[in-house]
Design goal:
Elements (H helix, E strand, L loop, with lengths): L3 E5 L3 H13 L3 E5 L5 H8 L3 E5 L1 E2 L2 E2 H10 L8 E5 L6 H7 L4 E4 L4 H11 L3
Parallel strand pairs: 1-2, 1-3, 3-6, 6-7
Antiparallel strand pairs: 4-5
């Protein structure tokens, strides 16, 4: 069965790039631009992995990761945080919120796909 990945990214170009790369690698993708719809969409599609931008308008990706970890239906889904936040301590803060992986933008395709594959179950 094809693995489903939810891509949470408000930047249209980044979202399209991530989705195109994932589709080219045989994944099904669920793009989400609106941070306010992330948890509802995740519960509806139950993806195998969530790729989460941290800087979203109106809500922080860190808050969404924490909320997903508290949600019984979502807590086991790995989250790959992808962010322009790359200051000292940011990775620790994002991982302590519950992110399973962390990549700093700009992201190269090879490390991106390696991180995705490392976090997918089975």
């Amino acid at each position: 069965m094809m693995k489903r990945i939810m891509v949470v990214e408000d930047n249209d170009l980044n979202r399209k790039l991530f989705c195109d790369v994932l589709k080219a690698n045989g994944f099904e993708v669920e793009p989400v631009a609106d941070g306010g719809k992330v948890l509802e969409m995740a519960r509806a599609v139950l993806p195998d992995l969530i790729i989460m931008d941290i800087q979203l308008p109106g809500i922080s990706g860190v808050e969404l990761i924490e909320a997903a970890r508290r949600d019984h239906a979502l807590r086991e889904i790995p989250v790959l945080a992808v962010t322009a936040f790359a200051a000292k301590g940011d990775e620790d803060r994002i991982r302590s919120a519950g992110a399973s992986g962390y990549l700093a933008k700009p992201v190269s395709i090879s490390p991106f796909m390696n991180a995705v594959k490392a976090l997918l179950p089975g």
